[in-house]
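job 3f2a | input accepted
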Amino acid sequence: QVQLVESGGGLVQAGGSLRLSCAASGLTFGSYSMGWFRQVAGKEREFVARILWIGTTSYADSVKGRFVISRDNAKNTLYLEMNSLKPEDTAVYYCAARAKSSDRFDKWGQGTQVTVSS
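job 3f2a | predicted structure (118 res):
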């Protein structure tokens, strides 16, 4: 059974930083592409960043240059370093996994709240 457990969310002032973690179990972590998504109540979930199983990264334009996605395959853990946070980054952040054979992220964590105060 695949489990993705996010942690590291919280309340931070604008301009501050947070690091989210996602601990994965029940899957061959190094063979999965991983991603971060976020959702504000009443809005659709949106893509934030992803890191392919081969290590290639990509970012949403809104976070490019401020957020860094990384992974530690030895620890089965995904990270999202968030810097220069803005109030509009406030959302629930979700970790997601996508198998090599899949064309979509279909494994999801429960989410962690990030709140950025102005």
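job 3f2a | The longest strand covers residues 91-99.
job 3f2a | closed
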